[in-house]
Amino acid sequence: MSHRQIYNLISTISNSYLFICARQFRKSNPQIFIVLVAILWLIGLVTFIWIEFGCVYFACSLLVFILLSMRSEPRKPGEMSAYSVFNPNCERLAGQMTAEHFENELLRRNLPKK
Hints:
Helix content is about 60%, strand content about 0%. The protein is mainly α and about 110 residues long. Helix 2 (about 15-30) crosses helix 3.
């Protein structure tokens, strides 16, 4: 399967009626949605532990969580990227740790004088 086919498959699944209804329910009742998902996940975990595939279920759950946690909508105009190479003029975010900061901390160059 090519990357494009996998992307199309994931796009088709995520735009199915079930996922659309789940997204609408999540927006209207976020606390109840989290509780329901946790209960369903625990039921699945217990079931897979019973059939001795608990580790596989947990690992796949982590991968699904990572995929679902990724941002799906594009950045808003003027919003900075977490990666400075994608920002205009390669600007860094405020408070971003850089090699210079790390080197100064490591070599203790910015210690206040006593």
